[in-house]
Every structure is written in C-alpha cells, then in structure tokens.
Amino acid sequence: MHRIAVVPGSFDPITLGHLDVIDRAAGLFDELHVLVVHNPDKTALLPVAQRVSLIEKAIADAGLKGDIRVMSWSVGLLVDYCTDVGASVLVKGVRSQLDVAYETPMAIVNRNLAGVETVFLLPDPAHAHVSSSLVRQVAALGGDVTPYVPPAVADYLRIPTAES
Asked: Does 57 qualify as catalytic in the annotation?
C-alpha cells in the first residue's frame, strides 16, 4: 500500500523545527506533501510562492530523502486536498501542550469529515521553542535568525545594514 501524508502549515517562514518534522515524516511515509496553506487568521510576511520556493530550497540544501512534494492550497478544506491526492494522514509538529490542545479538535473534525488521521510529531528539543512568528519578530528587529531557520531563509530575511 502506498502511504501518502500531508504536512500542512503556513511556513511563514519555514524553520529548522519544520524541516526536522518534514525529514522525520518523509521517513515514515512513501510520499509526503508539504502543503503551504493560507491561514485567514494570520497576516503573512512572505507571499505563498516565495514560501514554496524557500521550502524547496531548504529541503534540497538539507539533502532530505524521500518523495517530498511542496505544494500550496488556498481553496476549500485541508481534507479536500488530502482526498484529491489520496492522502490518509496529516502530520503536525507540536511543540507544547498548547499546540496539542489547539490541534486536537481539528484532528477529530478531519477524521470525521474525511477519515483522515492526524499524527503528532514532537520536535527535536533544540527547536521546540522556535515558531515562525518568533522568527519574523526577531528578523523585523534586525536580530540574527540563523540559529532558527535554514540558510536560504536567513539569507532572504537578512535586513541590509549601512555596512552592507
């Protein structure tokens, strides 16, 4: 049986924690879709096409193995995408009990709507404190984001200084 999973997220921007979850999920499934989704509750920093491009570069630069496809989705329910591509599993990285509490009702609804199960993966402890919103805030204030994001993202977010 060919097992397809989807790792959804806004990835605005992708972090090393995201990349860790993608890497481990790719080892668990035959095909993995990294899906950039639009979150109407968030104001995005990066356009969707740029996020897709940065994710593809991060995956290539990290040398991740497996059948990993980077896509975007903005119309309909997430489970509609899963049904369209034959995915039976959603993979969510959870950093804390707050993430689990937030994700659990959605996981139940996704299972009820389309029979799509959700698998929660814990991040590497080195990345458990990092979120995309934290990275955006640090970058906006001129801080160094290189410990938290793939090199392509750090380069993209780097704010030019008077010396550069």
From this structure: no
* Choice among 3, 42, 74, 96 that is catalytic: 42
Tokens at 60, concatenated: 């290539």
Please tell me the pTM assigned to this model. Answer: 0.93
DSSP 86-109: T--EEEEE--SHHHHHHHHHHHHH
The architecture in CATH of the region 4-158 reads: 3-Layer(aba) Sandwich (3.40)
Which is the catalytic residue, given 95, 111, 136, 158? Answer: 95
Domain residue ranges of the chain, discontinuous segments joined by + = 4-158
65 is catalytic: no
For 34-47, how does the pLDDT look when each residue is reduced to its tens digit (9 = 90+)? 999 987 777 899 99
Q: Would residue 158 show up in a list of annotated catalytic residues for this protein?
A: no
* Structure token pair of residue 21: 């979850």
88 is catalytic: no
Confidence (pLDDT) at 160: 52
